[in-house]
Amino acid sequence: MPDVNQVDQYLLELINRHAIPGFDGFFRVSTHFGSVAFWLAAFAAYSLIGKKKLIAAIFILALLFGTVINEDIKNIVQRERPEGAIVGASLTPVNYSFPSQHAQTAFMLAALATALLGIKYGLYAYLFAGYVALSRMYLGVHYLTDVAAGAVIGIVIAELVMLALYFNGVTKKTGLTGRFIQLGGITPPVEIATRGQMIVGLIIFLTGTGIATLAMLTSQYIVSLVFIALTYIAILKLPLAYAFFKA
């Protein structure tokens, strides 16, 4: 029975054997729409000129949060990129393969778009995310399990972000997890967060993520993930502190 790596390699070669030369350049350029740098720049620009600044800020924070997690997992797993003379070889990625950052980013943004903007925008976003994931395989820079894991991790991160925002009173909109919590009759201690409360939460998030990033840059990947987890737990505990001070 073939193992996962053999199946991954077979599917990758199958896609590349049926590649359409006219699409090579198109995929090579458009795959960058799954880039973290692209979306950080886009949302940063929108936060300056757009009306929905809070939504832009949420996307930016989620991108930062997700990037650290992705790099940590990549360096813990250390799966090498696909090899061989394939369409995307000229992209020459410099980091590890599992999980796909582009797929993770695309699906995370799709899940956030669904929660914050509604199912109509979310549907288009998910179709786009699927295209980005396919482009990573078409270009030969990721295996199927890389993009599948990236997609799952991205959606999970989006759910965690929306859950934290909901319980901290930043937004009344929720992801799928939050809706199940609402059905269970659980309501957040903070109805509407004040500006001061949001600033406290932001400081804790940036501090924890900053420490996690420093740990990542010094190759302490497990330590980095631990700080990410502790930061998230601290943010979830904030509503209890808010409720205490309000009382």
From TrEMBL:
Keywords: Cell membrane, Hydrolase, Membrane, Transmembrane, Transmembrane helix. It is found in: Cell membrane. The chain crosses the membrane at residues 26-48, 54-73, 106-127, 147-167, 198-216, 222-245. GO terms for molecular function: hydrolase activity. Gene3D superfamilies: Phosphatidic acid phosphatase type 2/haloperoxidase. One of its GO terms (cellular component) is plasma membrane. The keyword Hydrolase applies. It holds the Pfam family PAP2. It is a multi-pass membrane protein. InterPro entries: PAP2/HPO, PAP2/HPO_sf. Residues 57-162 form the Phosphatidic acid phosphatase type 2/haloperoxidase domain. This is Predicted phosphoesterase/phosphatase.
